[in-house]
Write a structure and sequence with these properties.
This protein is of the alpha/beta class and about 90 residues long. The protein is built from two helices and five strands; from the N terminus they run βββαβαβ. It is globular.
Length: about 90
């Protein structure tokens, strides 16, 4: 079953925090928000996860590689050249 996690946003509402990291990589109890979202999706039976990237995309891709190394199956929808907005990524 497929799921999509939207991780491309600028994270403006988090203010200074997202000037150096993307919102998806903000740490919560020792794990990135992205890691927690992937675990939650996996726990509900989603085994094919797509994550869109834009803001600090390289950093998010590094986290995706790390999570894939932990056994998750995650692919990336690269939106560096332009955000596809709400839900237009490939499913």
């Amino acid at each position: 079953m497929k799921a999509m996690i939207f991780a491309a946003g600028l994270g403006k509402r988090l203010g200074n925090i997202t000037q150096s990291i993307p919102k998806a990589l903000v740490e919560i109890n020792g794990k990135s928000a992205l890691h927690l979202a992937v675990e939650r999706c996996s726990g509900y039976g989603f085994d094919d996860i797509i994550i869109n990237v834009h803001h600090f995309a390289d950093m998010v891709e590094d986290e995706v590689l790390r999570l894939n190394g932990m056994g998750f199956h995650i692919s990336v929808s690269d939106e560096r050249d332009g955000l596809l907005e709400n839900g237009k990524g490939p499913l």
